[in-house]
From TrEMBL:
<dbReference type="InterPro" id="IPR041664">
    <property type="entry name" value="AAA_16"/>
</dbReference>
<protein>
    <submittedName>
        <fullName>ATP-binding protein</fullName>
    </submittedName>
</protein>
<feature type="domain" description="Orc1-like AAA ATPase">
    <location>
        <begin position="19"/>
        <end position="200"/>
    </location>
</feature>
<keyword id="KW-0547">Nucleotide-binding</keyword>
<keyword id="KW-0067">ATP-binding</keyword>
<dbReference type="GO" id="GO:0005524">
    <property type="term" value="F:ATP binding"/>
</dbReference>
<dbReference type="Pfam" id="PF13191">
    <property type="entry name" value="AAA_16"/>
</dbReference>
<dbReference type="InterPro" id="IPR027417">
    <property type="entry name" value="P-loop_NTPase"/>
</dbReference>
Length: 391
């Protein structure tokens, strides 16, 4: 098949040709938009949690588009683990608020923006602690610096939206990476928005540990959001994600080929896109065969082994790698932490630093007390392949 016509889009946050299996999440957000449009502000934000590769970022991007189609003010932001202090996330968040203000298509927001920026040569927003520092200057004056709280900034942005049936949504990806101070401030902001009746909603996504992280930051977090687990696609949705893009380009899968790809992908959207891209480039005929599918999976895992998996493995120390190898030896998707220690030898305290570091790096997580699992689907198989290559 012609690679230039390949319809599949594997990549971090890239929109697939068909967003299959996420209708419930999209409908839930559409309901939120509709309720705000009718003046009902008694709504909660949304939190999506799940393993890497299930399409959380793609889902956030889609929901943001839905909000913008209804003239909502949207702010999009990705949390990052900072190695050199905590200021980075705060500065980026403030910058995104600034960009949202400037690019908004809502006429009320645009009028407010023009009033705010009238005669301003430069406008810069920087978060300092729990506040926002706004620096600006015009040609005939020295730079002026103002500091307002994050809550006051949002209240200022919300004011033009009151009574319009529109809202403001802050989309936060990798939310578990936010430092405790900023996370706590954002939860307090959402809590205040509920109490004051502001049409402001945080829509967040992160690893399976995110709900517990939010509850630890603020005890009332469990009541602030509608929590949704984003998991692998079911067989029907996985088949749809592969079949429809190919059919629109005049190709199709044999039954055996489809079954094999869906089974090997285990329902993970990212893997489906990788395998779909590979089988398109491999196939010589418009009907993809089982042999094409087998080669696509082989090449697909080669591709994943060069980037998706090593990004976690390469960051681990040797002791952390030993810990992950012991997890693989447990032979289960979710294993007992005691079994890992039994394989390693020693005591819990001997391995507590390695375990905590792997959790901090986002390589593993504890789905419940005394249990462990990888955050990346297929990580155990990668480690087995990697170890075999080392022999």
């Amino acid at each position: 098949m012609d690679p230039a016509l390949n319809p599949y889009n594997p990549g971090s946050g890239l929109m697939p040709p068909l967003l299959a299996g996420r209708s419930l999440e999209r409908e839930r957000f559409d309901t939120l938009i509709a309720r705000v449009g009718m003046g009902n502000l008694a709504n909660r934000g949304l939190i999506f949690s799940g393993l890497r590769g299930v399409g959380k970022t793609v889902l956030l991007n889609q929901l943001r588009k839905q909000a913008e189609q209804h003239s909502w003010l949207t702010v999009q932001f990705e949390g990052r683990r900072e190695e050199k202090g905590d200021a980075g996330n705060q500065v980026r968040l403030a910058d995104e608020f600034e960009r949202a203000l400037l690019r908004s298509k809502n006429q009320r927001i645009k009028k407010a923006s023009r009033r705010l920026l009238l005669g301003v040569e430069s406008f810069k927003v920087q978060v300092l602690g729990s506040g926002i520092e706004v620096s600006f200057s015009s040609p005939d004056q020295s730079p002026v610096r103002l500091e307002i709280s994050l809550m006051n900034l949002v209240e200022m942005l919300i004011e033009p939206l009151k009574g319009s049936g529109k809202g403001c949504a802050l989309f936060i990806d990798e939310m578990q990476e936010l430092e405790p101070q900023l996370l706590s401030s954002l939860l307090a902001l959402q809590h205040a928005a509920h109490q004051e009746g502001w049409p402001f909603f945080i829509i967040g996504a992160g690893l399976p540990t995110l709900p517990a992280t939010l509850s630890a930051a603020r005890s009332y977090a469990e009541r602030l959001f509608d929590y949704r687990v984003v998991g692998p696609l079911g067989a029907e949705a996985a088949e749809q994600a592969l079949a429809e893009p190919a059919e629109k380009c005049g190709a199709r899968y044999s039954g055996d080929a489809m079954t094999y790809l869906v089974t090997e992908a285990e329902g993970y959207p990212f893997f489906l896109q990788v395998f779909g891209q590979q089988i398109w480039d491999i196939a010589q005929e418009k009907e993809f065969s089982l042999r094409d599918a087998e080669e696509a999976v082989y090449r697909g895992f080669e591709h994943l082994d060069q980037g998706f998996f090593p990004s976690r493995w390469d960051r681990a120390t040797e002791k952390e790698r030993r810990y992950m190898r012991a997890m693989v030896n447990a032979g289960q998707e979710v294993m007992d932490a005691s079994d890992v220690i039994s394989t390693l030898g020693g005591t819990y305290s001997d391995w507590s630093v390695a375990r905590a570091s792997l959790i901090k790096k986002g390589a593993i997580y504890a789905p419940e007390r005394g249990k462990l699992a990888f955050t990346v689907p297929g990580m155990a198989r990668f480690i087995e392949r990697h170890e075999a290559e080392e022999l």
